[in-house]
Amino acid sequence: MNIALWIVAALLALLFLGAGVMKVAQPKEKLAAAGMAWTEDFSSGVVKAIGALELLAAIGLILPAALGIVPVLTPLAATGLVVVMIGAAVTHARRKESQMIIVNAVLLILAAFVAWGRFGPWAF
């Protein structure tokens, strides 16, 4: 189970690292043109803040546990991603983008799995 938790955490970290860098580095208009139409509902600052949260969560999923420095940050980062995915699902539901809600639900379940495992029986 420990290996499964590491694999899921690494997968989430890679996904959110990429998504976060994209949101922080690119202007909102370019993101909207690339298929992230939801960015039209938010200011540039909020989109950048979401990207920064995703970057911090990606780092928090791996580094604290790997380095053994405040490893409780790993399940906290996973819990933060659960909250971000709830917000994303609500945003996509308002926009009637049901395909994206499925993606959000899958990522939410994976992040909840890591949070459960790292807070619970397979804590560091």
Question: What is the gist of this entry?
Answer:
With 124 residues, this protein is mainly alpha-helical. The chain has helices at residues 2-25, 28-33, 44-67, 73-94, 98-119.
Features:
mainly alpha, globular, 5 helices, 0% strand
Reconstruct the topology from this structure.
Layout (H helix, E strand, L loop, with lengths): L1 H24 L2 H6 L10 H24 L5 H22 L3 H22 L5
Secondary-structure-derived class: mainly alpha
Strand content: under 5%
Give the low-confidence spans: none
SS field, number of helical segments: 5
Helix and strand run: HHHHH
Task: Outline the structure in words.
This protein is 79% helix and 0% strand. It is globular, with a radius of gyration of 15 Å. The protein has five helices and no strands.
